[in-house]
Amino acid sequence: MSRYTKCIIVVVVVVSAFCTCAGADEPKKPNVQAPATYKELGNWKPSEPGDQLSKGKWWERFNDPELNRLEDSLNISNQNVLAAIANVEAARAIVRQSRSQYFPLVTAGPSFTRSRLPVGPNGQTVSTYAATVDASWEPDVFGRVRTAVKAGRYGVQVSVADLENVRLSAEAELAVDYFGLRTQDALQQILDATVTSYQRLT
């Protein structure tokens, strides 16, 4: 067996060992026999968090056109909501960037130069075109890219949940302030009517 053949065998064995280690990223769930129900908890069931779900236009139940207009404008002009939307877009961009590492990276560098040579009485103009292409690719042997993509997806879910919570908080605060002002307006009308009544009696 030649030395070259031995080197090839060693390389194949090492690469196979690396590929085998790559599968160790995914933790295996322990095989534990858990009871289907617990008598102490009654109607207990697993939690189903829905922070990432849109809460809809809940304020329309009040049938107030002015409140509807204010709430619709809030999602356009509120800076906290806009910042949360930007965080969601940034998280999605991170996922796209991480996923792009699955594929080869190809770069191109075209160039153009124009020069004048002192040939003849009037000289001569020479144009030079050049283009360089470079390609590189790194296999995801240890699962680094796969793990980064998965972490990025979790980050997107967290950002979307934050966005919906920020939006709901801003909408609720606007509704509370709006009805607070409407209450003060109603009290002011009652006070004005009371003053008018006293003036008529005197």
Describe the protein in words.
With 202 residues, this protein is an alpha+beta fold. The chain is flat. The chain starts with a helix and ends with a helix. The mean pLDDT is 80. Strands 1-2 form a two-stranded antiparallel ribbon. A hairpin with a 6-residue loop joins β1 and β2.
Short overview:
With 202 residues, the chain is an alpha+beta fold. 55% of the residues lie in helices and 13% in strands.
List keywords for this structure.
4 helices, single chain, 13% strand, 202 residues, alpha+beta, flat, 2 strands, two-stranded antiparallel sheet
Number of strands: 2
Give the uncertain stretches in residue-range form.
none
Helix content: 55-70%
Query: How confident overall, as mean pLDDT?
Result: 80
**Cα separation of the termini:** 123 Å
Strand content: 5-15%
User: Biggest sheet, strands in spatial order?
Assistant: 1-2
Order of helices and strands: HHHEEH
Class per helix and strand makeup: alpha+beta
Largest sheet: 2 strands, antiparallel
Shape: flat
Radius of gyration: 34 Å
**Number of DSSP helical runs:** 4
Task: Present the secondary structure layout.
Elements: H1 3-22, H2 65-77, H3 79-99, E1 105-117, E2 124-136, H4 144-201
